[in-house]
Amino acid sequence: MSPSEYRMQISLNVLEHLGINLYSNVPAVLSEVVANSWDADAEKVTVRFQREEDTITIQDDGVGMTRDQVNDRFLLVGYRRRDDQPGPTKKGRPPMGRKGIGKLSLLSIAEEITVETVQGQERSAFHMTLEEIREAIKQNQEVYRPSPLDVDVDLDQGTRITLKGLKKRQTISTAEALRTRLARRFSVIGPTHGFEVSVNDHMISPSDRGYYDKLQYVWTYGDSSLESYCKNLENSESRSTHIDQPPMSVTGWLGTVKESGQLKDAHGENLNRIAIFVRGKTAQEDILADFSERGVYASYLIGELRVDDLDIDQEEDAATSSRQKIVEGAPRYLALKEFLINELKHIQNQWSKLRLQKGVKEAQKIPAVKKWLDSLPHSYSQKARKWLGRVHRVNVDDIKERRQLIKHAILAFEFYKWNENIDRLKKITDKNLDTVISMFQELDVLEATLYGQIVQQRMTVIRTLQEKVDQRARERAIQEYIFDHLWLLDPSWERVEASEVMEKRVDKLFKDMDAGLSQEEKLSRIDIQYRKTAGQHLVVELKKPDRTVSVFDLAKQIEKYRNGFRKILNAMNTPHEPVEFVCLLGKPPVEYSNEGGKQTVKNILEAQNARYVNYDELLQNASDAYSDYTKKKKIVDRLDEVIKALDDYDDDSE
């Protein structure tokens, strides 16, 4: 008995992988159908998207198919067109199809497929359903037979494919979105190539790609037509189109937009990519993702490159099975990546220079900034311009945020200037002491300006709490904010001084003391915290806003904590360090309304080095303190003026 012969079999189950699960979205699937129309020498392709009926129809006026061609080509999985029909089409078109599996992608987006086709006098029509195919797979059938349709195909020539029962997860929202994405997947659509494609009677044109008008700088590779679409282009540069080894030609363009946010379109698609086209169709949606080391400029980058030499008939196919990516190890693909590495480096350098120059021009549109630049000595002015130019390269699209960056750049430059001046101290002699005085004056100006910015920000916080927050919300905000922002209690308390040892001891003190409080005392409190600031120990206790307390009860409570602090300070050999107590109350102590009560409350608390503050008084006192500062501040110089001007600058004037 002879051994059985070896056999390789292909099951219908392959359809699950090569068709049903092959493609990820509707535009990718329809691209395969449109590509077939191109290969069929169609001049017009009509796509009709009916969202309400979950139907898409694609019709072309190409050569169509006979019944035998339907079986031997369309329904034959893996039909290799270029083996059977090598070379260009009758109209001289380089064919897009190769593997013979793209039409299976229809199963990934629709439950039903109807195909109608006419070639000469022969008319064919058949129907396929995903349910029938899956049933055939389940029964281990080797052949699936679509249902023939006895209909009068109303086509003079060409093919019509109707997709019904679109899968919800795949359905795009509008015909406009479909038109845009199809436009981005082909470089041969339009009268120039004799290939017109429309979606719901709207002819697709290059402008439908939706990004040409966003381009600011462009680097072209043998593409002279691009500039006619770019309405806002500010600079273009022509680059070499040749790759030496293996010899290949690259055409198309790479460009950057003005604001990185422009690379997210209205349909939610990310445009921050470089698409690779082969024979007029997208072969890889984004090669930019293959480059790991990228600078800020890459967030502004977009491009379309056509590299037909990636797909040579006589060579191994460079595309992956899904037709959505190129095989990464293919020699021509590696050569393209090497070419792009050099191009991206060049673009990065040029983009930085162009954005720097642009940044200086934009910043000088603000009169106060121009005045500040003009006031600097020439050597400093040149450096300051570079600083401002770098700000423009930062990935910030919001006008207010960018203006804030300009402000910070100016302050940072003044710091830089001062640090440079420190080196001059070594050269000071008795004969040039005037130089030291002028340097110190510059430092005074810088410090005053910086503190003025701090004051302005704090006043904004206070005004917001006073004007835009209701009583209860205001009190909650103060309770959450005050312990880490002691300037609300006293403008001189700028920073909290940390001491882990002291904080642990005080925390234990609070816990021990709280154990001795009455229930009423516990109910009246929100929180108590310890801080050290300005060289003194500070205890801040928050009382509930709706509670009224007696100043005598406050004094007793404070005395307990004071005695505890004395023990801690004695143990740390720092018995004379001052301790202050602040009680934040919603209402004045009950004695406050008595005759002479105001002074009585003040005297009792001052004896304990303590004071109380109402929630409303807190904001008003802080506001008054900072208002006094701004009134008394007399230093007004070029730096102060430019900072204020940036704050007041009208957005509409930009």
Topology (elements, then pairings):
Layout: H1 14-20, H2 26-39, E1 44-50, E2 55-60, H3 67-74, H4 81-84, E3 110-119, E4 122-129, H5 130-138, E5 147-148, E6 158-166, H6 175-183, E7 196-199, E8 202-203, E9 215-221, E10 235-238, E11 242-243, E12 248-249, E13 251-257, E14 274-278, E15 281-284, E16 301-306, H7 331-363, H8 367-375, H9 378-393, H10 399-422, H11 433-467, H12 471-481, H13 500-515, H14 519-524, E17 525-533, E18 536-543, H15 551-571, E19 579-585, H16 597-606, E20 610-614, H17 615-632, H18 638-648
Parallel strand pairs: 1-7, 9-10, 14-16, 18-19, 19-20
Antiparallel strand pairs: 1-2, 2-6, 3-4, 3-6, 4-5, 7-8, 9-13, 11-12, 13-16, 14-15, 17-18
Helix pairs in contact: 7-9, 8-18, 9-10, 10-11, 10-18, 11-17, 13-15
Structurally, how many domains make up the residues? 4
- Classify the helix fraction into a percent range: 25-40%
Strand content: 15-25%
The CATH homology group name of the largest domain: Histidine kinase-like ATPase, C-terminal domain
Per CATH, which architecture of the largest domain? 2-Layer Sandwich
Q: Give the mean pLDDT.
A: 80
Overview of the structural elements:
- With 654 residues, the protein is of the alpha+beta class.
- It folds into 4 domains: 1-200, Histidine kinase-like ATPase, C-terminal domain (Heat Shock Protein 90, 2-Layer Sandwich), CATH 3.30.565.10; 210-358; 364-468 and 620-654, no CATH class; 473-608, no CATH class.
- The protein is 40% helix and 17% strand.
- The chain has 18 helices and 20 strands.
- The chain has helices spanning 14-20, 26-39, 67-74, 81-84, 130-138, 175-183, 331-363, 367-375, 378-393, 399-422, 433-467, 471-481, 500-515, 519-524, 551-571, 597-606, 615-632, 638-648; strands spanning 44-50, 55-60, 110-119, 122-129, 147-148, 158-166, 196-199, 202-203, 215-221, 235-238, 242-243, 248-249, 251-257, 274-278, 281-284, 301-306, 525-533, 536-543, 579-585, 610-614.
- The strands form 4 sheets. The chain has an 8-stranded mixed β-sheet. Strands 10-9-13-16-14-15 form a 6-stranded mixed β-sheet, covered by helices on one side. Strands 17-18-19-20 form a 4-stranded mixed β-sheet.
- A hairpin with a 2-residue loop joins strand 17 and strand 18 (536-543).
- It is elongated and about 115 Å long.
